[in-house]
Amino acid sequence: MFMRIITLKDMTKAIENKIGLDRRQAEKLAGFIMDVFGYESRIIDNVLNPEERQIFYMLQAEGFLTAGREQTRLHDGREWLTYYWEMEEENIIRYAYNPPSKKGDSKTISTTPSPQTIYDSLSDEIWRMRKSIPGRGYPV
């Protein structure tokens, strides 16, 4: 499957449209992201400092990035976890060239349901089960 290469222009436009930053701020953030990723669409987490990681969490919430991990067995039998970040190229292109509607509009692009929607979707039976689980801070 062929994926379009994300350019600085694509990323800047996507940030402007989705996050709502002005052009100058969007260019600065897009430049930072593109510098970290370079020519790759996936990077390991340990290249980031804590402040940069916070920015990546924000970008994840907006649908620009996803986080993941891989587990590898070393030659001596130990397990090694590698955490990584990956660009959501399809979302970035969509945000850049098909901007979401204004906030509050029912057509706004959302990659994750709101907490209210998640909780409203749970049945009364699930809530009763949750209350009866010992050790969860709920009376049994």
Largest sheet report:
3 strands, antiparallel
Stretches where pLDDT falls below 50 for ≥5 residues?
A: 104-110, 136-140
Mean pLDDT rating: 80
Shape: globular
Write the element-wise H/E pattern from the N-terminal end onward. Answer: HHEHEEHHH
Number of DSSP E strands: 3
CATH class of the domain at 8-102: Mainly Alpha
Give the N-to-C terminal Cα separation. 52 Å
CATH fold naming of the domain at 8-102: Arc Repressor Mutant, subunit A
Strand fraction equals 15-25%
Instruction: Please give the count of helices.
Output: 6
Question: Which class do the helix and strand fractions yield?
Answer: alpha+beta
Rg (CA only): 20 Å
**How are strands sequenced across the largest beta sheet?**
1-3-2
Q: Percent range for helical residues?
A: 40-55%
- Assigned CATH architecture of the domain at 8-102: Orthogonal Bundle
Produce a short descriptive summary:
This protein is an alpha+beta fold and 140 residues long. It has helices at 8-19, 23-37, 50-61, 89-97, 115-120, 124-131; strands at residues 42-44, 65-73, 79-87. The protein has a domain at 8-102: Arc Repressor Mutant, subunit A.
What does this structure look like?
The protein has helices spanning 8-19, 23-37, 50-61, 89-97, 115-120, 124-131; strands at residues 42-44, 65-73, 79-87. With 140 residues, it is of the alpha+beta class. It has a domain at 8-102: Arc Repressor Mutant, subunit A, CATH 1.10.10. The protein has a three-stranded antiparallel β-sheet, with helices on one face. A hairpin with a 5-residue loop joins strand 2 (65-73) and strand 3 (79-87). The protein is built from six helices and three strands; from the N terminus they run H-H-E-H-E-E-H-H-H.
